Structure to design on (250 residues):
């Protein structure tokens, strides 16, 4: 008589699950489970990144890319036809970027990471652009919570004091923060992808701004957004999305 309690899992006892071509861990056997696993793995990557060590920044990025690869593989298994092929093509792009980051440790610079020709137009580093976009999101959340734009910008400027986003801005930094919000609102969904170099923020930054704005508008409609919510939102957003400053050697 067969044992009904026999373990039919292909996972060896005590062994952690890894993404294999012929098998998926139990948590990824449904798309909902795959999404939950993705969020868990991205949270682990964030914790690694927040340690603030230069070596951890790249490791955190690799962890995040690996989590995205696993999710895309799970999604592709549940999709048929051209859509599945597009998902796997995206999987290949993410995998190529992850491989390029690994090769950097061996001194190899893959083509995807090689800088293009220099242009005459000055350009802020991406981490500064991203940081300013996050500050704009925080200001917008407070403004929608009932603060004046000056109050919100002044609060956020004080929260990010000493950070590289404010480098070179010594007088009335709150005015600069207001400009960052205006840039984000002016850039929203108004440019095609191939014109991205002509706008002050990347499409990812604009998507972040749009996503949080939509969430706040829903809370406002429910009557659950106010000044206290705005302050908490600003603090949590800045803490979560801004990379920690590098630790100074002892």
């Amino acid at each position: 008589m067969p044992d009904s309690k026999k373990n039919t899992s292909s996972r060896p006892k005590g062994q952690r699950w890894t993404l294999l071509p012929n098998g998926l861990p139990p948590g990824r056997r449904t798309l909902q489970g795959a999404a939950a696993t993705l969020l868990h793995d991205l949270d682990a990557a964030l914790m690694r990144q927040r340690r603030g060590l230069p070596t951890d920044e790249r490791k955190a990025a690799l962890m995040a890319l690996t989590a995205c690869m696993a999710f895309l593989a799970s999604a592709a298994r549940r999709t048929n036809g051209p859509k599945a092929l597009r998902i796997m093509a995206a999987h290949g792009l993410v995998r190529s970027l992850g491989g390029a980051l690994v090769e950097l440790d061996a001194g190899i610079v893959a083509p995807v990471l090689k800088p293009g020709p220099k242009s005459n137009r000055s350009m802020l580093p991406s981490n500064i652009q991203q940081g300013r976009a996050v500050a704009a999101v925080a200001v917008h959340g407070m403004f929608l919570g009932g603060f004046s734009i000056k109050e919100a910008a002044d609060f956020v400027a004080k929260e990010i004091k000493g950070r590289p986003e404010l480098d070179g801005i010594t007088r009335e930094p709150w005015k600069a923060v207001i400009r960052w919000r205006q840039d984000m609102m002016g850039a929203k969904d108004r440019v095609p992808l191939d014109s991205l170099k002509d706008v002050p923020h990347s499409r990812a930054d604009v998507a972040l701004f749009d996503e949080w704005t939509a969430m706040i508008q829903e809370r406002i409609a429910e009557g659950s957004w106010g000044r206290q919510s705005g302050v908490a939102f600003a603090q949590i957003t800045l803490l979560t999305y801004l990379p920690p400053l590098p630790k100074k050697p002892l």
